[in-house]
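Weekly structure sync, notes
Attendees: PL (lead), two postdocs, one rotation student
Agenda item 3: pending single-chain targets
PL asked that the sequence for the first pending target be pasted directly into the notes so everyone works from the same version. It is reproduced below exactly as submitted, 539 residues in total.
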Amino acid sequence: MKIQGQIVDIYHQRIYKGEVTVEEGKIKSIIEKEHQITDFIMPGFVDAHIHIESSMLVPSEFAKIAVIHGTVATVSDPHEIANVLGIEGVEFMIDNGNQVPFKFNFGAPSCVPATSFESAGAVIDSEGIKKLLQKKEIKYLAEMMNYPGVLYDDEEVMKKIAWAKHYNKPIDGHAPGLRGDAITKYISAGISTDHECFTYEEGLEKLQKGMKVIIREGSAAKNFEALIDLLPEHFENMMFCSDDKHPDDLLINHINKLCARSIEKGIDLYKILQAACINPVNHYNLDVGTLRVGDPADFIIVEDLVSFKTKQTYIDGTLVFSDGVSNIESIPFKILNNFNTDKKSTSDFKFDSKAKQIRVIEALEGELVTNELIENSLIENGNLVSNIDADVLKMTVVNRYQNQQPAIAFIKNFGLKEGAIASSVGHDSHNIIAVGANDEAICKAVNLLIETKGGICAVTNSEEKVVPLPVAGIMSDQNGETIGKDYALLDQMAKKMGCTLNAPYMTLSFMALLVIPSLKLSDKGLFNGSKFKFTAVEV
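Predicted structure, written out during the meeting:
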């Protein structure tokens, strides 16, 4: 196969008219050649850190959408499904991904469970990590979220890191806001990347201390604007990632969009493309081609080098996307799940109190971090209830693995005026999480998800809408278009109910993520992520 176009040679920083010859899935030659074709041939994009599960799609369906945007590979941490199903969940992701022409590169999830302060569905200890790292499909030790465990030399944490070093596989970091001596120690343990920087200064310090910084722009957490000005000087040590990308967003764009936004800022093309196409391949030792002779034939054809609109995507020489159509087929797969709790009654969500003031989680637009607020309470018949006027709403996390009393807290900035929204996508343990205007609506939303054994939903007095997620309670068994459309309708319904957040369900899913400060809710109670201990709702 011979393909002509304007060859984008990132390594030598030049563009020339040429021809690429592909044989048996590899690039046999790249030569200069005169022709009239104006399209550009360049390496495909790599998402340097993503949880495929957050797209609510199984890997094979994710691939079908991603290739439309010129993505040829991902560096994927399967720790969401691992927290539900353990090693069996990781193996499901590998097996499903292996059946389609796309380059998934999975890591061994280092934090299952993420903390001991919540109930997860599974445990992967250092022996489990050793078993996973032995697999050729496992390319790295996935994000070490337990940074206190690294700082205080926790025995299990250090064993996991030691196994990664033993198998010579990189170790991903997760250290939001860690600075000074703490980040120095964290890096010295052998941790080489971070995708959690949320200020320029934090990113710069980590780069100066030898870390690679991955610029994250997902559906909820968006750090592109804060970090992109680091790229011109530090492009050799930076990458792009989504971290979490919801299905409606994935249908619109992927890493291509971050490159386009970087071009708009006047950043050098080759520096951008090095971060987007080359650095992840080198850092994680991926079997992904970067448009050199002898490489796997992984490349894309784009209309221009401004919008990076993709016309064709090739993986191992196979045309997987062309003329607006993805050529990746849907494949059958076995549905796995772990959902074992009985329906709740409204009285389960009652919070007996006489307190005048309460601790409230402040959800922030586009951030995973939250603030702690002190607000006046609203009590009816001895029950702490949602205060719609003050936008202080009751929230709950319900253990989905066993019967347990729901945990209750309060949250600001969801803006709901009626009903409730709920999700069984609740990072990291994926218990049921719900926010609502009153106890009845919260109970109704929770029970809807218990009935469907996982999903996301919205309920009002007159309407209920649910998107089932039967695969581990976090992924759909449908294709991307279907789930993207259903998700968008649900998103609209939440906003119709008064929600003011850009991505209500994505933000909701992170309100149980204890490893990100400051205040979060687990199924065991309200948790202060800055002090790493439980705290009281009542002040």
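Discussion points:
- The chain has 16 helices and 29 strands.
- The mean pLDDT is 97.
Action: rotation student to compare against the earlier draft before next sync.
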